[in-house]
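Appendix C: a fully annotated inverse folding record. The material below is reproduced so that readers can follow the format used throughout the book. The structure is listed first as tokens, followed by the designed sequence.
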């Protein structure tokens, strides 16, 4: 009995806040279920969740406008294309646009129930747990810190006997407050030559701030790196002096220490002859000669997240690498991955239309390559499963059609063509 009790207490807990196994009511997560459009005969337009990018995957109904509440999605499909005329003036244009982006397969498939938080739409205990913890964090407004952040903060708290900042006496002295947000520190950062203004709204993590600073100042990387390191060192020295000698830190003293450190750095650095640097050339993609009569289709995309518009580009070359023909087209999509899939889908269609026999379809998206070569939904968002089938089904019975993954620089022509679409 004692052993059973120990095992039970390890796996189960009476406290919902502890990291144990708990029962959860399925009804609490029903808003995370959605439907993937197949034939559309079993999906109600206004009652069921089925629009991937819509809030709770549903279409809001305007009570002032009479609509057919029993309308099904199949009523909006004509010859495997969207015909939104029945609801054209009854819902917002935004939702019409979202519906038009849902891919429809050329051959009807059964409607499926999907678990929205999972990439492939398949429910798992792991996906359910993530949804539960996300809901708790969103409800309480608590965001979990990264492991490194928690470890750094814990070490600093151990070193400090009083968590309140002894300089300003207003805030808890975290790493971010110590090095960036304390009043005297902000004056020091702003008063030096680079004039950095520290805004509390933009500071969440010291490490993230350092990364962003280096990215923004990449053109003068050596100087900015030395400057930040010197200023952080000066702030730390003055803060330690206050702890052990009870001397108030001064922004002007921090700037003077930073200036001396920078000067010493450049003087010492100039004493040593700089070793010649040999920048490694970017990996260049060389054309590989194909077997005779084999053609190659390079596919790429361009996508604008703001308006959901994109372009696809396809370049056809012969076995010698000579250009034969190309294709460019504007498309609407949910994401860059969606646009890339539309490019590959169009390439498969062009193989049939152009009467090609032996063809290699090339792409530079690794996840998409895995999805089409392994016929795997695991590497593809659930909302695009139908489009994946449109790509893989036509080539399964054609042994002379294959897919290839290439570096991005090997796809530059198709990329430029997509950008011009």
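Designed amino acids, in order:
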């Amino acid at each position: 009995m004692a052993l059973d009790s120990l095992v039970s207490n390890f796996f189960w807990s009476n406290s919902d806040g502890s990291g144990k196994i708990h029962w959860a009511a399925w009804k609490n997560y029903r808003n995370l279920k959605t439907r993937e459009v197949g034939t559309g005969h079993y999906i109600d337009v206004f009652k069921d969740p089925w629009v991937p990018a819509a809030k709770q995957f549903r279409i809001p109904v305007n009570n002032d406008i009479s609509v057919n509440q029993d309308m099904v999605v199949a009523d909006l499909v004509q010859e495997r294309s969207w015909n939104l005329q029945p609801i054209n003036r009854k819902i917002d244009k935004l939702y019409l646009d979202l519906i038009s982006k849902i891919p429809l397969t050329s051959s009807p498939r059964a409607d499926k129930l999907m678990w929205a938080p999972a990439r492939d739409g398949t429910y798992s205990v792991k996906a359910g747990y993530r949804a539960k913890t996300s809901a708790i964090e969103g409800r309480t407004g608590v965001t979990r810190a990264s492991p490194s952040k928690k470890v750094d903060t814990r070490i600093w708290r151990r070193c400090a006997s009083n968590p309140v900042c002894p300089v300003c006496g207003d805030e808890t002295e975290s790493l971010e407050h110590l090095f960036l947000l304390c009043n005297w520190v902000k004056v020091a950062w702003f008063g030096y030559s680079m004039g950095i203004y520290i805004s509390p709204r933009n500071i969440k993590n010291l490490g993230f701030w350092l990364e962003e600073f280096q990215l923004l100042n990449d053109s003068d990387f050596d100087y900015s790196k030395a400057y930040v390191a010197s200023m952080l060192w000066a702030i730390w020295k003055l803060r330690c002096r206050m702890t052990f000698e009870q001397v108030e830190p001064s922004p002007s003293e921090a700037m003077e220490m930073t200036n001396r450190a920078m000067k010493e750095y450049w003087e010492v650095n100039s004493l040593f002859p700089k070793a010649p640097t040999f920048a490694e050339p970017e990996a260049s993609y060389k054309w590989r000669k194909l077997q005779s009569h084999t053609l190659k289709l390079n596919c790429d995309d361009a996508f604008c997240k703001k308006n959901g518009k994109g372009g696809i580009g396809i370049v056809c070359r012969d076995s010698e690498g000579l250009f034969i023909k190309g294709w460019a087209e504007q498309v609407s999509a949910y994401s860059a991955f969606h646009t890339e899939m539309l490019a590959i889908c169009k390439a498969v269609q062009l193989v049939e239309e152009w009467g090609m026999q032996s063809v290699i379809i090339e792409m530079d998206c690794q996840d998409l390559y895995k999805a089409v070569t392994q016929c795997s939904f695991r590497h593809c968002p659930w909302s695009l499963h139908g489009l994946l089938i449109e790509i893989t089904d036509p080539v399964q019975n054609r042994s002379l059609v294959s897919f290839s993954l290439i570096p991005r620089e090997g796809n530059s022509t198709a990329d430029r063509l997509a950008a011009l679409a």
